Amino acid sequence: MELSKNFIPGETEIKWNEHWKNKGYFNSTPDDRPAYTVVIPPPNVTGVLHMGHTLNETVQDILVRKARMSGFNACWVPGSDHASIATESKVVQMLKDLGIDKNTLTREEFLKYAFEWKEKYGGIIYNQIEKLGCSVDWNRVTFTMDDHYYKAVIKVFVDLYKKGLIYRGARMINWDPAAKTALSDEEVEFKDVTGKLYYLKYYLDSAGVIPPSGEQEGGSFITIATQRPETIMGDTAICVNPNDERYAHLKGQYAFVPLINRRIPIIFDEYVDPTFGTGALKVTPAHDINDYNLGLKHNLEVIDTLNEDGTLSEAAQIYVGVERFAARKKIIAELAEKDHLLKEEEYPSRMGYSQRSGAVVEPRISTQWFLKMKEMAEPALNAVVGGSIKIHPGDKFLATYKYWLENVKDWCISRQLWWGQQIPAWYDDKGNVYVGETLEEALKNVSSESGVVSEDKTHSSQLTTHNLTQDADVLDTWFSSWLWPMEVFNGISQPDNNKEYYYYYPTAVLVTGQDIIFFWVARMIMAGMHYKNEKPFSDVYFTGMVRDKQGRKMSKQLGNSPDLLDLIEKYGADAVRFGIMISSPAGNDLLFDEASLEQGRNFNNKLWNALKLLKMWEGKQSNEQGIVNSEQSVPGVFAPSPSEGSGVRPNFAINWFQNRLNEVRSELENMYAQFKLSEALKTVYSLIWDDFCSWYLEWVKPGFEQPIEADVYKKTVEFFEELMQLLHPFMPFISEEIYHLLSQKEDDLCVKQFGKMEAADKSILAEGELLKNVITALRDARSRNQLKPKETIKLHILSEKKEVYQPIENILAKQVNAESIHYVNDAVADTTVVAIEKDKFYIESEKQIDKTALKETLLKDLEHQKGFLISVQKKLGNERFVANAKPEVIDLERKKQADAEARIQTIEESLATL
RNA sequence: GGGAGCAUAGCUCAGUUGGUUUAGAGCAUCUGCCUUACAAGCAGAGGGUCCGCGGUUCGAACCCGUGUGCUCCCACCA
């Protein structure tokens, strides 16, 4: 079989994706094995996967594949989120481009467009997930507006309403004037901005009757500082601190709102900070949460001067219909003109922006539906604080989580949109509310606007379904996503006798971004605790944010957000997965650089070439399995003395690598347990590249034109297979491909179970290290003496423990290109000497050696050793150290001392021979 | 304003309850190699006052205090 020069990912990926799918490997049904369930954080249905998703999905796939290969019934549920605001605004924009105004459509017409849009673009993310190699169960695809899911959301709403946890009321909420909907507190993002503080004159009504004219002179006034002069028309009071002597004389007085000359009272409240601004505050209950509270306390009128689209309303009297920020400019100009503007100054402040539309959020009083959070929060808090849900990495987020839940406010769950689950509440013309999963059911559950649920038969008998109108609003997207881990198994819609629900829930681990800890993670825990009295997942793994290599957030404007499919096209899915994982320290932000994908591609190539090497050997094996004696041994393969009794002769390289594998497998288990996936990948990478390719394969490599011993070949193939298995969760395609190319097989790697773990033999590993050190040191010496790789040397070893070197001398000779190895008892003249521990290696070559350079190297080493010896001696000379330190620590120090002394002696002797 | 976290090689990070050498890895850099798997490679090397200061300890990158500089989260001061 002819193998291509380099690994070609494209075809391989398609081939294995199809094969895996045909075999149904990733489809899960409950069985006797323990379940390992992961639910994907559902991406927006019409979105595309960005690098953050790529990281997320890769992490999940690694965990799921590892579990699948470790005896678990792995089930990874894919799906997508209807993302009400995001999708609706996209659809509205699409309609606009077609020349259609949403307002001219009926709800049904609009939803028809929206579903068409969803059908058209909803498949993109699924395609990307598949291309990336994600081993999800495609039979379980769930969308948050699927029929059963829709019903589940409605069911939960009705249930919580009946329990008195959901209520409707007029409150100050965050209003998005662009999307024209209410937002939850979490959907508002604050940014620092430099605003301006305007100092305005409010003339006092000393006489109590006559409104001052605009150009009034000499009249007394009170100065108010405000950032938002366009809201003055909504002012209904001026407030000062009762202890502020400057304003004590204003008790019972009134002032006039500039421009419109409305008369407002001056009130006193300790809320006002006398040291801030002028110590006097204008109170606008309709447009500021604090003012709203003050208004409630002092029974002030509420004048809403803004329309829902952010333009000034009729109530403003002036600039009606003008957009709020344009109105601000005009009002400032008019205030200045009419001598109401004393001064303006720069002022740093924070402004709230809508997470979705980017519009500046307007505090607004509005009637909305709310979920009481205190009751929901406590079990969710205990689940994490009590340790039954573990957050990774560490407990970096524990404090944040705890603080949020302890101070959580009620959740505004209604949205003035059409795309989503419509609130199952109906109203009659008397203001009564009927809540139920269906209209018929709702009729049985009438309640007054603010009242409690009652079974009022008189109402229901008089009313028919025609008299009622359903609430036009839909529910917040997160009010559906918080049921995700349950409802993907129909746990809410059909909880009874639901085998799957009991088998798969709670899920194993949730992998998500730390930015949605409140939106989603905390609320899923709430829903889980409330409806199943069981956590939704045992572990939460937070990935960091993906940034570009300069540390900037990825964004369309900057053009630094690469297209996933382009990257897969260019480097291959395995390389993309490798690249993003290798640069991804758990929980920290990741600086994305295409260079790491190149590294992944290069790694593919390395694997491919190792495969090619083995395929070359495959046809060239010696048949005398286990019979060849050491004198006739295949060059390059060391054949040590037969092990007692067995007749099978272990080979040092094989023995060493077997133990390296054992050692690394146990390290990997620890890393997986701690979700240190990036480190795990690094470990596998290094095991393959360094230990296997650079050392092991070179050690067992037969000489030119020589066959490889059949046993050795067989073992090497097994090692390679085992390495592919370790690599598989990270790089599924190439590992599966190589696994099949190595030998004919019936099974597939993606479902091959890991073998038993074996303990590693430390002494063999130590011997391997010694061998590597000797080889490296000798190569370094060669390099310093400018010996060409082809120039051979004669190696003389001066050691008290020949028996250590004899078994590995074949390997050693080959690795340092020595034509012979001799053991000596004295220094060899005119050679380069290398000292390792207590042993000396003399390199004899035809080339003249550079004594100066050699001397320099030895002196440098000597200096280092002496310095080290002093530090050790200092320690051991310290009585208190000897008295207090643990015996094993002292022994270690003594050994260090002895070693250092021996080495110093070796080096000095070597110097003497020069 | 409240809270959390970070600071180790040019860059990105490891460094397990304080003692396995005078601190490791990958990338980048430098040197030598077209060696019959791989130049997307091989071999080798250089590079660090573990942010500053103080303390605890026989012993500190690690624990404590303090200063400096970053990052994030939360919060209604006009």
Please explain how this structure is put together.
By secondary structure, the protein is of the alpha/beta class. The strands form eleven sheets. It has a four-stranded antiparallel sheet. A four-stranded mixed sheet has the order 10-11-9-12, with helices on one face. Strands 20-19-18-21 form a four-stranded antiparallel sheet. Helix 16 links the parallel strand 23 and strand 24. The longest helix has 27 residues. It is elongated and about 115 Å long. The two termini are 55 Å apart. About 5% of the residues have low confidence. The structure holds one RNA strand of 78 nucleotides.
Q: How is the secondary structure organized here?
A:
Blueprint: H1 9-23, E1 35-39, H2 51-68, E2 73-77, E3 79-80, H3 84-97, H4 107-121, H5 123-131, E4 142-143, H6 147-162, E5 166-176, E6 181-183, E7 188-203, E8 221-226, E9 237-240, E10 254-256, E11 263-268, E12 280-283, H7 289-298, H8 324-337, E13 341-354, E14 362-371, H9 374-385, E15 390-392, H10 398-406, E16 411-412, E17 414-415, E18 425-427, E19 433-435, H11 439-443, E20 446-447, H12 457-462, E21 469-470, E22 474-475, H13 477-481, H14 484-487, H15 499-504, E23 507-513, H16 517-532, E24 537-543, E25 546-548, H17 564-571, H18 573-582, E26 590-592, H19 594-618, E27 621-622, H20 652-673, H21 677-700, E28 708-709, H22 710-727, H23 732-742, H24 762-784, E29 793-798, H25 802-805, H26 809-815, E30 818-823, E31 832-836, E32 839-844, H27 851-877, H28 879-884, H29 887-913
Parallel strand pairs: 1-2, 3-4, 9-11, 15-24, 23-24, 25-26, 27-28, 29-30
Antiparallel strand pairs: 5-6, 5-14, 7-8, 7-13, 9-12, 10-11, 14-16, 17-22, 18-19, 18-21, 19-20, 29-32, 31-32
Helix pairs in contact: 1-23, 9-10, 9-16, 17-18, 18-19, 19-21, 19-23, 20-21, 20-22, 20-24, 21-22, 22-23, 27-29
The protein binds one RNA strand of 78 nucleotides through strand 8, strand 12, helix 7, strand 13 and helix 10.
